[in-house]
Amino acid sequence: MAHEYIPEISTDRDGNEHVVQGWQDDFYGGKLGFWLFMFTEVLMFGAMFLVLTYYNMLHPADFVTASASLNRFLGGTNTVILLVSALTMGLSLLKMRAGDVKGAKLMIWATIILALMFLSIKAVEWTAEYNHGVFLGLDALQSGNAHSKPFGEILFFGMYFTMTGIHGFHIIIGIGLMVWLLKRINAGKVSPEHHILHWNIALYWDIVHLIWVFVFPYFYMIGAASGGTGGH
Amino acid sequence: MSKSYFDETHCAIGHPKSTFMQWMLTVDHKRIGLMYAAVMFTFFFIAVSTALLMRFELFAPGQQFIDGDTFNQAFTLHGVIMIFLFIVPGIPAVFGNIVMPLMIGAKDVSFPRLNWFTFWLYIFGSAIAIASLFTDAGFADTGWTFYAPYSLNTGTNVIFTLVAAFVLGMASILTGLNFLVTIHRLRAPGMTFFKMPLFVWGIYATAWIQLLATPVVGITLILAIMEKYFGIGIFDPSKGGDPVLFEHLFWIYSHPAVYLMILPAFGIMSEIIPVFSRREIFGYRTIALSSASIAGIGYLVWGHHLYTSGMADIAKTVFSLLTFFVAIPTGIKFYDWIATMYKGKIILSTPMLWAMGTIITFAIGGLTGVTIAMIGVDIHLQDTYYTVAHFHYAMLGGVVFLFFAGMHYWFPLVTGKMYDESKAKIAFYMQFVGFNLLWFPMFIAGFLGMPRRYFDYLPEFQIYHQFSFFGALLFIAGLVFMFWVFYKGWTKGEKVGPNPWHATTLEWHMPTSPPPLENHSKVPYVDFDPYEYHHGEPVVKFDYETMRRID
Question: What's the average model confidence in pLDDT over B480-484?
Fold first, then answer.
């Protein structure tokens, strides 16, 4: 439907003609809308970083101790995976724009696989932490018992599980979006001439990896000096 | 006979035959706006009834009809419905949808199917909010602000309300996003930003707030859920968390939300005043830019809700100063409106009456706001009836009054018919008098120390509560009468054609009345200002078939 759209012409008093932008086939409008939506993601995580920074200022030493106990090897691997996945997603868009639909699909599949790898490693990490007794609801993160960690560490891990959890949720949504995108490409709805959906999903994936680029150093790296690469 | 948007529509999915399904699946911005109005006013009347119940309870000291716990749930229900279901989405969802695309000469909003989805997201969120009324634990009793730590400890069903507020927030974000893109992309050729009607400016500023403030409260509600059910500790003092942080995060959104409510209402005022004064608006640019600066400054004032919550003195001083600053652009708007009326040919139709009534009530609401923005005064008046009266003067006497003004003003546009002017005026006077009788005594009661949200009070406050009670009865009678007038107007009113008010903006230059499915027959070229009058007559005239100027 959108492909057959012919824009209207409006005529001013001198008889000059002006093309009217309709809501149909508005590539720039679609991009603008999605950029604005990405703003809201940044604000959401921004508020959480604000909370994190506030408690970091109150309990700097506890934060370093808690961070030192995280597994920098797995976290670092995940960072590399996500960065590479951003590359493959970007390549898929470039290929789509260049007219190479098959190559674009291949790159989307690569991104999906990398995203699944990210989630698997995340699962390994969380499991290890759970087995070490550090998880939401376990004694270590409750107050007033023999295993209780100090305030700063409880808060650190509270935000750690919340933020990496919400980030992981975004990865899952992203995988869903990419599968949907592949379906739309196969149905011919997304093509080199009409690729706004592809563009926006690539943008979404960029924001997901960009958020991780901030999440990773804040949680994993502030304790790196005392923690080595290992951890839970 | 040409068809109007009541006769045909586009649908999000397929081409259903039944009228009912056509309404449920419609992507037409006018129909979606009407459906929002229908749902919202249903909720509005539920919340009004809850308020009346509280007034009954407060008629005399001691317990009358409901116990204290029910009272707590009643004011929470009233607040949650009024804020999240009615007044925040209110004017943008109804008139932003119905009128804004018409005003800029667009065929629809930028993402019509997203608009349809957003409406159903709103319904979904509302359903969750209401659902907790029917659960065992009952509706939340925290007040609409969900302050930690009480919201984390109470046994009532706070999670329903938190999730509902999150979903409604998402609907609000998507509406704002849709309008922003629409205003940026779909203005008719020639319509620069400073040729847009002022209501569009109001919606534009509002949309930015919806987009940039709502995510913060969204994540705050998520964090509150995480705190309540997973114990992450950040709002829990026993784990080193800070409940005041919740208040900060909450008001970072919820104070801009106050301006989110009032800015589109100011936009309605800026439409009505020039039309019924038959004069070009005074200071177009200052009104447009003051909307933007209210939106901007409004982000930086949230701390004035926390003067008594424990905050550094320097922070209090800065927040107090910034709060005063918001009064400046608001004052500019008021002077502009009054200057527009000066030497105008004022026509006291019902929309104009509502607008002028609002100038009085909102001025009281705004100026009392300045008094409680002062730190010392606020220490005395925080959480008293003075504050309650202040924000009801600003919200009910500002936003809702202007909402009603807009309903009268655009009634002939939406329905193609006219309501009974003389009866509508009676309804206005009933509500105006009832409103002041209802809220003004609360200023005095609050000043003398009557705290808000109390279910019982000392005998010396009884006289104020009883004045309020009778004011409430009069107000509600006027309210019901007004809706009856609308109903009669819609069913039996006379047809008045596309432009009964001799207005100038594009929504009144329609080929049919009510407007057809895809709005203007042709998109006009806009080389004129929105409110051009000459000797009390509109300057710009169109041939409605070709949309070329014929003046």
Answer: 97
